[in-house]
Design a protein that fits this description.
two-stranded antiparallel sheet; alpha+beta; about 210 residues; binds zinc ion
Length: about 210
């Protein structure tokens, strides 16, 4: 019997159960937005680790639930899915931080994404847009500077940052300008006409 090892593994299982609790809370939040799926996968992995930990702890205590399963095989499986877990978590964090702080891409890459999104050639877009625009924040009254590449960088899912609206005799572009208003991140919906001239803006909202 390896009592000390069993105790440490059981403490580990306890820590995992807290991790599972937090994962469930995240699922609860994300479910309303249809984004819970990766966290359901992570919760399943945590549950799997939890069972693995208990299984090993019991074996350390001399209780063998599956004598045919060797410790080597069990550790191999836990190591493998541990790596999968880390990868999924790293991707989710990358997406989360990209959503908060924006993606790190060059102006030209951002512009090519933009033109692809609105279905216009890059050259045409470049001939119409200005390098900088500005809009007044309705909360702090500061003038917020933005460019088209800034909008693209701030929205990894571009359909949330640039909405093409068909209007009489052309199109309008609804751009969502991100702005740190004090400590709060806010978004100002700004309307541009078919030549990318600023037209109007609507009240800002917290992100
Ligand atoms: Zn502000």
């Amino acid at each position: 019997m390896l009592v000390r090892n069993a105790i440490i593994v059981i403490i580990g299982a306890g820590i995992l159960s807290f991790g599972l609790l937090y994962a469930y809370r995240i699922i609860k939040i994300l479910r309303n937005f249809g984004l819970a799926q990766p966290w359901i996968v992570l919760s399943t992995l945590i549950s799997f680790f939890f069972i693995g930990y208990l299984f090993i702890a019991l074996r350390f205590l001399g209780i063998d639930l599956m004598p045919s399963l060797s410790l080597e095989n069990l550790v191999t499986v836990i190591f493998f899915f541990g790596a999968v877990f880390v990868l999924v978590l790293a991707i989710l964090n990358r997406d989360l931080f990209a959503n908060i702080f924006g993606m790190v891409i060059s102006d030209s890459e951002a512009l090519s994404r933009f033109s692809e999104h609105i279905n216009l050639p890059v050259r045409l877009v470049l001939s119409m847009i200005k390098p900088k625009y500005s809009v007044a924040c309705d909360i702090c009254n500061r003038s917020v500077q933005y460019s088209i590449p800034d909008i693209v960088r701030a929205h990894p899912s571009l359909d949330r940052g640039v909405v093409v609206e068909k209007a009489m005799g052309g199109v309008n572009y609804q751009l969502f300008v991100r702005h740190y208003c004090g400590k709060e991140l806010r978004e100002i919906p700004v309307c541009h006409d078919s030549h990318f001239e600023y037209r109007s803006n609507r009240p800002s909202r917290p992100v």
